[in-house]
Each structure stands twice: as structure tokens, then as C-alpha cells.
Amino acid sequence: MSFIKIPVKGMNDFLPSEIRLREYVINQIKETYQQFGFNIIETPCLEHIENLCSKQGGENEKLIFKVLKRGEKLDFASAKDENDLVDMGLRYDLTVPLSRYYANNMAKLPTPFKALQIGNVWRAERPQKGRFRQFIQCDLDILGEKSNLAEIELIQATTTLLTKIGFKDFLVRINDRRILKKMVDYASLPSDDSDKIFIILDKMDKIGKMGVKTELLNAGYDSNAIDKYLNLFDENKYIGNASNYYQTKGLDFTDDEIFQNLDQIINTAQSIANHQFKVTFDPTLVRGMSYYTGPIFEIEMTGLASSVAGGGRYDQMIEKFAGMSVPACGFSIGFERIITILKEQGHNLEIDKKAKVAYVVDKNISADELTKVLQEAAILREKENKIVLVVYKVKNFKFQKDKLAEEGFTDIIFK
Predict the structure, then answer these.
(1) Going by DSSP bridges, is the β-strand pair 113-122/307-313 parallel, antiparallel, or unpaired?
(2) Which of 128, 132, 147, 359 is the most exposed place for a label (fewest CB within 10 A)?
(3) What pLDDT, on a 0 to 100 scale, did the predictor assign at position 407?
């Protein structure tokens, strides 16, 4: 039997240096969000298949790693289809598990409940750059707060994190799913097709207005309605707040509560930005999930084509688990994307703050001398809070010494 030396496609091994970077960012995430009053929670990696296939996860439900039933329950002979053979699945995101978690535990939780969850998720993707089958997701959610304080705090906390780990001059883009639907209705396009139209609109950054028009025509929509719809979008789509944008289009939406709410989020978030980033209305921002019910937002870095964080309000999801209406708003941080950017840009992060000492001892050292070294190391760890490594000297000592230096051991003691 031959052994395969590489990990399963779409999953990764991480070297110690990579783990240090990942742990550093995770610790920064935890520290930052706890300062904003978020509580760290944990949910299982496996969920009942009924929960995962509840039409809450959109296209992600097609990417579930499903788990076969076990023992007598696994009956191939009587199974009509795949659904009769599985009873669990690996979670494909953290939002569905959060909804189930809150429904189970709401009597024990404060209102509003501010949750931070970091963990691996699994999707049966076709692996490619930036797309993995196992990856870490980081979600923060505020449950039970129906006002826009939830959106403002989520934006403030997330932008605070990004600036702490070295990012600046990024852009927070904001829209509202209800505004997107208003635009469809204004153009006399079929309201029932809103989600299909949004999927095409979401491609504007890549294919431009003419490309969107072509796809809408190919989908069978009226040419005049398409023109009326696309006239609502400018090449320079980032224009101040929502009300100002539509005033330039001659539309009287300014008295609508939806626009006032969105403008307040934008203006408040910008006022606390301290000139480190920009907050703007983007009428083309869609977000892929149809479960969003109100404001949606994304954060993009200058010079990058994709976002590093995104989310929005999803007031109807938890009701399906809890049996009662629970307002909810969340932000998901693109952890793997942030790690990739930090590695590519060579950010100089002070990851290891503790002093690191390495004792390199000769293999012929006496038992008594080795005991003394181990005692010295214990004192340095306990009383001086240092990281201390004790290793035997190897034949290729230069290589050993270079590797210790790479790992941050500035004090190397020979015994």
C-alpha cells in the first residue's frame, strides 16, 4: 500500500510560522470584539441534515459534505434517494448553526445578544485560488436589536479590527436589499424575478453596464424597462449617501424611512472613521444570500477585486428555528483572504511578543548538567515569562541555528 503525501485537495497543512500568523489574527479578532461586548460561542461542526437543508443557505446547500447514517439505520435496500441515507452534514457556514444555537438557548442569553464565532466550515467546492473545501470563518452577529445601532456597531468593530492589524484606506460599501427591490419596481421589471435580476446586477464590476444589459435582454426582459433600470446606475457608483444619490436621478425617495435609516448608518459610520477609511452608498451592492432583509455591507481593500468582509440584516432567519420573530444582523470576516493579503504584502506584525530563549545542549552532556539546564529553563518560563526551548545540538548546526533564528529565538545558549 502506497501512502499519499499531500492533503486532500482544497484542504491545507500549515507550517508553524503560518500558524503563528493565523493565531495572531484570531487573537486580535477575539480581543477587539470582546472590547465591544461580543461573547465567544462555539457550535458543533456537524448539524442535522434537516437544518442544513432548510433553504437558509442558498447555493451553499448544494455544497454540503453529507454524513451517512450508521448501523441498522443505513439501509441501502429500501433507500429511494440520497436523502434516505444521510442524517447529518458538516456545517457550510456559521449562520445556520448560530440560528439553531440561539433557538435552543435564548432563555439563558441576554437581549440583545452579541455573538462571536470562529471555526472551520466545509464546502464541496471545486478548489481554486482563494476557494477551499475547509477554511476558517469568523462571524459576529447581534441578535434581538432591531435598530440600526446593530449595523453601526458591526461596522465600527470590524473596521477597528482591520486598522489594528495594519489595513487602512479601505472602503465600506453599503446598500439595502429593500432599495434594490424598489429599483426593480421603479423600472417595471417583474418583482418576482428580483433575485435573478440581482445576480446579474452583481456582475456589473466585471462586465459593465452593457454586459448587464446584454444578460438581462438574454433573460427575456423588456428593453425599455432594462434601460430605465440601468439609468439608475452611474459609472462612478460611490456617491455620498443614498438620498443624495437618488436626488441626482430625480427620484423622490428621500422621505422613505429605508433611505433615512441607511443614510444614518453611513453618516454615523463615517463620522467615527477618523479619516482611516471611507463609508459610501453603493447601489450595485447585492450580496449573494437572498435571506438578507435590509441593510447590507461589504469592505473592500484598495487595489483588490474582492471584499474582505461582508454581511447584513437577516430578520427572518431565526424565526424558522425559534418560532418567534428575532431581529438579527451579522458581519462575516474573510479570515483566509485577510491571511493571504498579510502574507503577500509582507506585513511586519509583532506576533511573538515574549522573549524566546533556546538552550542548545551537547549530546554528551552529563545527566546533572542537563538537569541544571532544565531547571534554568523552568525558572525563565515561570519567573520571567519567556518562551524557552531545550534541544540537542544536531550535526548540521548552522542549519539548526538559522532555523531557530527564523522562529524568533534571539538568545541562543550553548551547553
Answers:
(1) unpaired
(2) 128
(3) 84
Q: How crowded is residue 317: how many other Cβ atoms within 10 Å of its Cβ?
A: 23
Asked whether residue 303 carries a pLDDT value surpassing 80, the answer given is: no
Other beta carbons within 10 angstroms of residue 31's beta carbon come to 11
Please identify which residue in the block is written with the cell numbers 531545550.
Answer: 390
Q: How far apart are CA 415 and CA 407, in angstroms?
A: 20
Whether residue 355 has pLDDT greater than 90? no
Amino acid at 147: S
Question: How long, in residues, is the chain?
Answer: 415
Residues 6+ apart with CB under 8 A from 271: none
Do the Cβ atoms of 330 and 148 come closer than 8 Å? no
Does residue 388 surpass a pLDDT of 90?
yes
The torsion region of residue 287 among left (phi > 0), alpha (psi -120 to 50) and beta comes to left
Q: Are 64 and 48 in contact (CB under 8 A)?
A: no
The model's confidence at residue 287, banded by pLDDT at 50, 70 and 90, is confident
Residue identified by cell 509582507 is 346
pTM of the model: 0.87
Per DSSP bridges, beta strands 39-40 and 113-122 are parallel
Name the CATH superfamily housing domain 1-146+315-351: Bira Bifunctional Protein; Domain 2 (3.30.930.10)
Cβ neighbours for 361, distance < 8 A, ≥ 6 positions apart: 369, 370, 373, 390, 391, 392, 393, 414, 415
All three cell numbers of 235: 459609472
**Which pLDDT value is given to residue 53?**
87
What is the Cα–Cα distance from 415 to 361, expressed in whole angstroms? Answer: 5
Q: How much is the average pLDDT of 199-204? A: 88
Cβ–Cβ under 8 Å, residues 33 and 142: no
* CB-CB contact of 328 with 313 (8 Å): yes
Question: Domain segments of the chain: what residues?
Answer: 1-146+315-351, 356-414
Q: Do β-strands 113-122 and 134-143 pair in parallel, antiparallel, or remain unpaired?
A: antiparallel
Q: What is the strand order of the sheet 387-392 is part of?
A: 387-392, 356-361, 411-414
Among 271, 296, 246, 280, smallest CA distance to 173 is for: 280
d(CA 249, CA 56): 35
* Bridge partners, 313 (sequence order): 329
